[in-house]
Amino acid sequence: MAENKDGCVKPSKGPILAAAESPAASPVIAKEVPKVLARVGKPAPDFELAALVGGGFKNIKLSDYKGKWIVICFYPGDFTFV
Amino acid sequence: MFAISTDSRFSHKIWQEEELSKMVPGGVPFPLLSDQGGRVGTVYGVYDEDAGVDIRGRFIIDPDFTLRAMEVLTPEVGRNVSELIRQVKAFQHVRATGEVTPSGWQPGKPTLTPGPDLAGKVWKVWKPDSAF
């Protein structure tokens, strides 16, 4: 099958964790004990996710925007009502 | 400004084209990110495992990459954009001046400068009706 640049499924990095906490270092613990790392006054947890930007798709890495004021809004889903 | 849900980027595209563009001409001017599996939502404390979605959570990050504010709501209640903008302005002011902004502060309203002389004397310079 020809390599598709933007296939049906495209893994994204997700959270970018410090080496000691990375899933590769401790797969079982990382899977079973998801850790909340967001704390005010502490460094923002970094991540890289696939995104719709303008009309196209690209990955966005949060730390690429270091130096700017950033607002991130999680929401329950496209086509939800509020 | 980034918006994140557990939907795929394809869903984001259709939502932007079919609905959001009818509310905001050209669609919303910020990226829509796809957190499938809720891994990033988990790290930010907003992933609801039972529903399989990221609930409503809003985070302000300053230029040093420090998380300054977070607000998390169950999905039924929408956000207040004016309050978000007020908080960003307040954090920008605090970061630039070292002053602090009392409850209800808006740009132009008095700030406070913490120090030994102010201890026990806030009542002289700040009244509860300033909170609104």
How would you describe what is shown here?
The complex is a heterodimer of chains A (82) and B (132). Chain A has 1 helix and 4 strands; from the N terminus they run βαβββ. Chain A has 82 residues and is mostly beta strands. Chain A is globular, with a radius of gyration of 16 Å. With 132 residues, chain B is α+β, with helices and mostly antiparallel strands. Helix content of chain B is 31%, strand content 18%. The longest helix of chain B is centred in the C-terminal third of the chain and has 17 residues. The two termini of chain B are 27 Å apart.
Strand-helix topology:
The complex is a heterodimer of chains A (82) and B (132).
Chain A: E1 14-16, H1 27-32, E2 46-53, E3 56-61, E4 70-74
Antiparallel strand pairs in A: 1-2, 2-3
Chain B: E1 2-5, H1 9-23, E2 32-34, H2 39-43, E3 47-48, E4 53-54, E5 56-61, E6 67-73, H3 81-97, H4 122-125
What's the story with the biggest beta sheet of chain B? 2 strands, parallel
Low-pLDDT runs of chain B: none
Mean pLDDT of chain B: 94
| Most residues in contact: chain pair | A-B, 43 and 59 residues
Strand order in space, largest sheet of chain B: 1-2
Q: Widest sheet of chain A: strand order?
A: 1-2-3
Largest sheet of chain A: 3 strands, antiparallel
Low-confidence stretches of chain A: none
Q: CA-to-CA gap between the ends of chain B?
A: 27 Å
Order of helix and strand elements from N to C terminus of chain A: EHEEE
Cα(first) to Cα(last) distance of chain A is 42 Å
Q: What does the average pLDDT of chain A come to?
A: 82
Radius of gyration of chain B: 19 Å
Structural class by secondary-structure content of chain B: alpha+beta
**Overall shape of chain A:** globular
Shape summary of chain B: elongated
The oligomeric status of these chains comes to heterodimer
Count all strands of chain A and give the number: 4
Rg over C-alpha atoms of chain A, rounded to the nearest angstrom? 16 Å
